[in-house]
Specification:
- The chain is an alpha+beta fold and 154 residues long.
- The protein has one domain (9-152): 2-Layer Sandwich (STM4215-like), CATH 3.30.2000.30.
- Helices cover 18% and strands 40% of the residues.
- The chain contains two helices and seven strands.
- It has helices at residues 9-19, 86-102; strands at residues 39-41, 51-64, 71-82, 107-111, 114-123, 128-132, 140-152.
- Strands 1, 2, 3, 4, 5, 6 and 7 form a seven-stranded mixed sheet that branches.
- A hairpin with a 6-residue loop joins strand 2 (51-64) and strand 3.
- It is globular and about 55 Å long.
Amino acid sequence: MTTPFSNSPADVLRYALIALGLGTLPVPGTNYTATSWPVSTGQELDSPDNTATTYDTTGIKDGRSMTDGDVVEHPGVQVRVRATDDPTAQTQAWLLANAVDKLIVGTNLTIGSHTYTVYAVSRKGNPARLSQETPTSRRPVWTFNVTVTMTQTS
């Protein structure tokens, strides 16, 4: 039987990206610089223009153990990047995509009173330009999807 995590996989990935120095925790009332890249989970920030957001998505059920029937699943996460202009959004999306490909291997994270180990993040495709926000801002949005292999240790 699969047990839910205390924090969502999208939130765990958010903290992993922040731990790697690829973003910051959003702080209300902060005057962010263009290089701050606050990372939120579940709801995109209105400001600053340059931000990343992680969302939980459908994962992959890889099978079931023949000995005890335990289900093997890898939760899904979407990473969404928004910026002031298209080249900035594209560059940041690729930076995050390459980071999850290479840098997140056995990362240990503590979120509140819970501890997680992220063993791997597997990208499901290349970053792609999703759209521009409308009707007023026209800020470009890029996105990519991953699956996560992780355990909660406390």
